[in-house]
Each structure stands twice: as structure tokens, then as C-alpha cells.
Specification:
- The protein has 252 residues and is α+β, with helices and mostly antiparallel strands.
- Helices cover 37% and strands 37% of the residues.
- It contains 4 helices and 7 strands.
- The strands form 2 sheets. A 4-stranded antiparallel β-sheet has the order 3-4-2-5.
- α2 runs antiparallel to α3.
């Protein structure tokens, strides 16, 4: 008798739990339906803004291949890089626009020949020190002269020449406005064709492509280890692209 009563209690409890789960699911569905309309449509818009770059950046490298005396290698490399740094500051490049990007000291080894399976341990014969300085030029028209000047003052490597837009946020905001305007125009046209009215804006999704350089050029082959004629570099334009997706309610 007691076991029968216990089974009935358990069965009743199971039913109550099942009913509670169903009610919770129903209440959640009502909540979702109330917050997100079921009759919606989406449109896309794209904004492209071409902007003339107002900054130039490049990296200048000083590499010293020295002997086994590390202090001498460091001193020689530091003297060269200090001359480069001083030259750039004399040309008006601010300290905040100069940043050390790399400082690498690595040994050079001599690997002897193996004889009868016996191979001698590698021996350090010297050290190579490479230091790289990232430079930002706010007067991009002077870039060619600076590239030539750093080589004349001790640099033996120049790379990563780029033209960039200083205030990318402004270009992105303008591209966003253009993209949203295009999407709104599409929404009105689609609603008119399909025979319904555009309701409230439900969601807005944005994706932005990286700023892509266009038209950057210049041949640096005329620059030798002793410097040379300043290269001609064209900044061209850069394109900021923003894509948006707008979702609206459908009204009759």
C-alpha cells in the first residue's frame, strides 16, 4: 500500500515538472514574439570614401655584422642608429613619431666538417645586431628626401613604406552615412514594389573593410648603401569601405 502511494506521488511530481517546463517554454516564446517582430525584411547598403593620405610611414634598419666582442658590435650599431635618429629629428620629425620596433642580437656560427661521423660543436665566430626604427612623416611630400637621407646617415635598410590617413574615424563615419542612406533608399523602393510600408528599424549590422591603399608607388632601386637620388613616391588615395544591413518591420 505504501509503495503504491509512493509511486502515485512520484508520478504526480513528474507531471507537475513537465507542466512547469511546458509553461516556461510557452512564456519564453511569448516574450520573444513580443520583443522581435516576425514580419521583417532586410536591405544592404555600401559606402566607399576615397581619401588622400596625409601621413607617410616607413621603417629604417641598421644592421652591424661584427666579431665576438658583443660590446663593440653594440657600440658600432648604436652610433649608426643615433646618427639616423638625430638626422630625422633635425628634419623636423618629432620624438613621438619615432619608435624602436626591433632590437635583435644574434650569434653567427661556424659549423665544422664532420670526419668519420664525428662532428665538432658549432663555434661562435661573431654577432649580428639589427635595430629597426618605425618613422611617421607628417609632411608626406618630404618622404623621398628622408628615405635618401637616412641611408646617407648610416642606415642600410629601408622598408614598409606606406601612405595612411591620420583620421580614419572621420572617413569611416562618412562612409557609414553613405551606406545607411543607400540601404534606406533600397528599403523604400522594395516596399513600394512589394506593396507594403516600411515599419520601425529593428536591427542594424555594420561591417568595415580595412583601409586599402591605392596608387602608392615609387622605385627605391636608385638608393645605394651610400644614398642617392631621392625616390619619387606617389601617395594616391585610400578607400574606406563600410557595409550595413538594416532590418525593418513590415507594415500593411
Amino acid at each position: 500500500m505504501a509503495e503504491s502511494i509512493m509511486r502515485m506521488v512520484k508520478a504526480g511530481a513528474f507531471v507537475l515538472v513537465a507542466v512547469a517546463a511546458v509553461m516556461a517554454s510557452y512564456q519564453y516564446k511569448i516574450s520573444v514574439d513580443a520583443t522581435y517582430p516576425t514580419r521583417t525584411f532586410s536591405v544592404d547598403g555600401t559606402g566607399d570614401i576615397d581619401t588622400a593620405p596625409d601621413l607617410a610611414t616607413f621603417s629604417v634598419t641598421v644592421t652591424t655584422n661584427g666579431g665576438r666582442n658583443v660590446a663593440e658590435v653594440q657600440t658600432a650599431n648604436t652610433e649608426k642608429m643615433n646618427r639616423v635618429n638625430a638626422y630625422l629629428k633635425e628634419q623636423g620629425v618629432a620624438s613621438e613619431d619615432l619608435k624602436t620596433a626591433q632590437y635583435t642580437l644574434a650569434p653567427r656560427y661556424n659549423y665544422g666538417s664532420c670526419v668519420s661521423g664525428n662532428c665538432p660543436a658549432p663555434a661562435i665566430i661573431g654577432y649580428d645586431l639589427t635595430q629597426t626604427l618605425d618613422v611617421k612623416v607628417r609632411e608626406s611630400g618630404r618622404l623621398g628626401d628622408l628615405l635618401s637621407g637616412v641611408v646617407e646617415n648610416g642606415a642600410n635598410g629601408v622598408s614598409e613604406v606606406r601612405f595612411v590617413v591620420d583620421d580614419e574615424a572621420a572617413a569611416k563615419a562618412e562612409a557609414r552615412e553613405e551606406a545607411i542612406a543607400e540601404a534606406k533608399k533600397k528599403a523604400k523602393s522594395l516596399a513600394k514594389t512589394a506593396g507594403f510600408k516600411v515599419g520601425k528599424l529593428v536591427t542594424l549590422y555594420e561591417s568595415s573593410n580595412p583601409v586599402m591603399p591605392y596608387g602608392m608607388g615609387g622605385d627605391m632601386s636608385e638608393m645605394s648603401a651610400k644614398g642617392g637620388a631621392a625616390p619619387m613616391l606617389e601617395p594616391g588615395t585610400q578607400t574606406t569601405k563600410v557595409q550595413v544591413t538594416l532590418t525593418y518591420e513590415i507594415e500593411n
